[in-house]
Amino acid sequence: MGFKRTVLLPQPIEQEADQYLQDAGCNIIRCNSCTFEEVGEKLKEAEAVVLRTGIKFTKELLAKGTNLKVISRTGAGVDNVDLEAATEQGIIVSSSLGANTESVAEHALTMMLTLIKNIKRLDNEVRSGNFKIRYTNPSNDMTGKTLGLLGFGRIGSRLAEMCHTIFQAKIIAFDEYLPVEVQKKFESWVKFVDYETLLKEADFISIHVPLTPETRNMVDYNSMKKMKKSAFLINTSRGGIINEADLAKAMKEGLLSGAGLDVFDKEPIEENNPLLEIDNVLMTPHTAALTEECVVRMAMEGVKRVVAYFEGKESTNVANPEVLKRQK
Fold first, then answer.
1. Residue from 5, 52, 208, 286 carrying the catalytic annotation
2. Domain check: are 93 and 114 in the same one?
3. Digit-coded pLDDT (tens) for 205-245
4. Number of alpha helices (DSSP H) and beta strands (DSSP E) in the chain
5. Which end of the chain is more exposed for a tag (fewer CB within 10 A), N or C?
6. Residue 214 vs residues 117, 232, 233, 317, 325: alpha-carbon distances, Å
7. Does the active-site annotation cover 208?
8. pLDDT of amino acid 181
9. Are residues 213 and 308 in the same domain?
């Protein structure tokens, strides 16, 4: 199979990754604006797309890619690609799964420590002249606390390892899709429990599951009522898993001590989102994986998969492997 090595970049990628495509002899098509109209027009020529998060490849957009063979996501998720439509069209969809593990786990841990140490409030009090806040014992220790993981994949398990090793944290996890034989590998230091037990026992609950119809609004008001009032809720996975209106209500009623959110149901977060008014909700703009080092790692993995495909090598991190079976 011969390729012209034509690659569409709907958005710019890191210089190192861009140069890698050039050095591999790829013909790069660039977009001035990441709009449906422009991407759709330029997609007609492309054999591959290196995709960030600026646009969703819907069924309608994919239909314009008559020569398209590969969509390579720089991120770990593929939720901005219509997988079913891509599969029908015979397009391989892959992601840089695992490239962001350390960065996201570090971000979740940072949120946990910031919340339990009450850093945001203490900083504000010092700036306003209240140095005597130190006498109120306004923070707690992390050591010995119970971390509950909702999802125990790459990032969840890495965060668990960090907390268990550094803080001697007790680790509990709920992951109904993790095979029993995999769970047994961690049984010396992780206790796998049901969802109800996770809610009741954890001092921190950190979310590491994808957004699906089953997980949407999974953490709702009824879930939060079962958590400890001293507990903290962390989400660096996907917005929509936590019901944000329910979280605002729970926080106002004092059902939780705090929350750390890097992701939201609607991004950018809407101006009228009630969480913006709550001091002990820590928010970052979906940046857990956007460290200087991680964006380069993700982009490099994305372009390497494209070049490998052009060179006839086996595709990796494929989200729709049925396409590969069909091609054999």
1. 286
2. no
3. 999 999 999 999 999 999 999 999 999 999 999 999 999 99
4. 13, 12
5. C
6. 34, 23, 19, 23, 28
7. no
8. 97
9. no
Cα dist from 223 to 150, 278, 286, whole Å? 12, 19, 24
Report yes or no on 51 lying in a domain.
yes
pLDDT tens sequence across 251-280: 999 999 999 999 999 999 999 999 999 999
Whether residue 65 has pLDDT greater than 60: yes
For 286: left if phi > 0, alpha if psi spans -120 to 50, otherwise beta; the answer is: left
pLDDT at 249 over 80: yes
214 given a catalytic annotation: no
As given in the structure block, the two tokens for residue 325 are 């079976």
List the CATH number of the domain containing 33. Answer: 3.40.50.720
Structural domain boundaries enclosing 109: 101-283
Annotated catalytic residue: which of 41, 196, 267, 293?
267
Q: Are 142 and 22 members of one domain?
A: no
Active-site entry in 5, 52, 154, 238 = 238
Residue 2 is predicted with a pLDDT of 73
Torsion sign (Cα): 226, 212, 154, 140: negative
Clarify whether residues 93 and 169 are in a common domain. Answer: no
Is 286 known to be catalytic?
Answer: yes
Q: Are residues 10 and 56 in the same domain?
A: yes
Does the pLDDT value for residue 36 go beyond 70? yes
108 and 90 within one domain: no
d(CA 249, CA 287): 25
